[in-house]
């Protein structure tokens, strides 16, 4: 194996694709075998937020940015402590940390959190293959002793069923109702206490929610209640929320059909504001009667241009999805509000005549630009209006 230094070392990791292609490299993180879908992410920052986003459950992330490790690892950039990405594929050895927030090196954090990785592989070759041929399943094998059973990895990759049809929400959702109180991280160091109480009560249904969605709502002074993905319509009503957020999450939206979608369908009959994010957006589409599809290579990065069709404005967005609402057979009551300027796919919808909308991307960013934060304001404005109308009619 050719290391960056030119030194030849025996390989301690292998990445074996489902078509049998094998990349050898330097193992990092936790030894063992991980099998999942191989995706690539083009973000230049935020590797810890990416790796802890529960939407990545069942996936191995190839980073196209070559310097991974320079911010080390800290306690603030965790998007969740549940299952998330299985591991990572990087071009060079992990860079030494040189950031004031770093508490430990990326390598020791990976090991402590059970993530596997391979370094010193040609990430450009992997990425161009995934772009050309679409997503592939892969096995990531790490063994510090170098006894790599490539055949076992090849078999595991070939036999992995793939994300289509796979429901991974039960592996990442919270099991109990809880309250979220922490605001957004501030550059001065530390989390902001939520702003003055806005009096708005928001329920977030947790399909694998990222903490920065919860922080954004708490920061705006909302009372945030997090409910498990299996929450029934009655359990949601029992909180008497002024607005509902359907969170991001992993796996195939169509595979959650027997619990989440019927509940969302019932919520659509009501008049409460609803905001869907990523998996939540896809499931909102399903509940409204649309179809979802598996994309070829998906969108994973922090620089995806999206046009808001209502204002004409273009925003640069943070994205992480492999499924999307299909353009075919859209129900008449669903209006497309946002589209990707990369490939024209649907990036936002709203239910005509109702305060209900959703986006395919991540308005909370983490990592990524903050262009889409206005969507939280748009949602909270609808929530405020709903609450004052409700109080006015009492
Ligand atoms: N970030 C998300 O919520 C991802 C949604 C879904 N699992 C997809 O890959 O399309």
The main β sheet shows up as: 10 strands, mixed
Distance from N terminus to C terminus (CA atoms, Å) equals 73 Å
Order of helices and strands: EEEHEEHEHEHHEEHEHEHEHEEEEEH
Number of helices: 10
Radius of gyration from the CA trace?
21 Å
Structural class: alpha/beta
- What order do the strands of the largest sheet run in, or round the barrel if closed? 8-10-9-11-12-17-16-15-13-14
The CATH architecture assignment of the largest domain turns out to be: 3-Layer(aba) Sandwich
* Overall outline: globular
SS strand fraction: 25-35%
Helix content: 10-25%
- Catalogue the ligands: glutamine
Uncertain regions: pLDDT < 50 for 5+ in a row? none
Indicate how many domains the architecture comprises.
Answer: 2
CATH class placement of the largest domain: Alpha Beta
- By DSSP, the count of extended strands is 17
CATH superfamily placement of the largest domain: Class I glutamine amidotransferase (GATase) domain
Question: What's the overall average pLDDT, rounded?
Answer: 94
CATH topology of the largest domain: Rossmann fold
């Amino acid at each position: 194996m050719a290391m960056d230094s030119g030194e030849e070392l025996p390989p301690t990791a292998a990445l074996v694709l489902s078509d049998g292609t094998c990349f050898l490299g330097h193992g990092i993180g936790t030894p063992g075998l991980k099998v999942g879908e191989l995706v690539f992410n083009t973000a230049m920052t935020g590797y810890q937020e990416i790796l802890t986003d529960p939407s990545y459950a069942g996936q191995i992330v190839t980073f196209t940015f070559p310097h991974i490790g320079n911010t080390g690892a800290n306690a603030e950039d965790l998007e969740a402590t549940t299952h998330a990405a299985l591991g990572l594929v990087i071009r060079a050895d992990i860079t030494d940390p040189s950031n004031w927030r770093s508490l430990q090196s990326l390598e020791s954090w990976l090991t402590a959190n059970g993530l596997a990785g391979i370094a010193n592989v040609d990430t450009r070759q992997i990425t161009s293959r995934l772009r050309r041929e679409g997503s592939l399943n892969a096995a990531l094998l790490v063994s510090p002793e170098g006894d790599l059973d490539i055949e076992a990895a090849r078999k595991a990759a070939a036999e992995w069923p793939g994300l289509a049809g796979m429901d991974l929400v039960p592996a990442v959702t919270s099991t109990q109702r809880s309250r979220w109180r922490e605001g957004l991280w501030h550059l001065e160091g530390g989390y902001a206490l939520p702003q003055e109480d806005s009096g708005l009560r928001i329920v977030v249904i947790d399909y694998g929610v990222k903490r920065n969605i919860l922080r954004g709502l708490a920061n705006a002074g909302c009372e945030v209640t997090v409910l498990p993905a299996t929450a029934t319509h009655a359990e949601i009503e029992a909180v008497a929320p002024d607005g509902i957020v359907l969170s991001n999450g992993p796996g195939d939206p169509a595979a959650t059909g027997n619990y989440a979608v019927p509940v969302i369908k019932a919520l659509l009959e009501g008049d409460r504001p609803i905001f869907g994010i990523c998996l939540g957006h896809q499931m909102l589409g399903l509940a409204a009667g649309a179809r979802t599809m598996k994309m070829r290579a998906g969108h994973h990065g922090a620089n995806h241009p999206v046009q808001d069709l209502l204002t004409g404005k273009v925003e640069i967005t943070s994205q992480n999805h492999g499924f999307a609402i299909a353009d075919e057979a859209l129900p008449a009551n669903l209006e497309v509000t946002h589209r990707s300027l990369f490939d024209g796919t649907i990036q936002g919808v709203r239910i005509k005549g109702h305060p209900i909308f959703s986006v395919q991307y991540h308005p909370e960013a983490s990592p990524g630009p903050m262009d889409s934060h206005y969507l939280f304001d748009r949602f909270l404005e609808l929530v405020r209006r709903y609450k004052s109308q409700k109080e006015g009619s009492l």
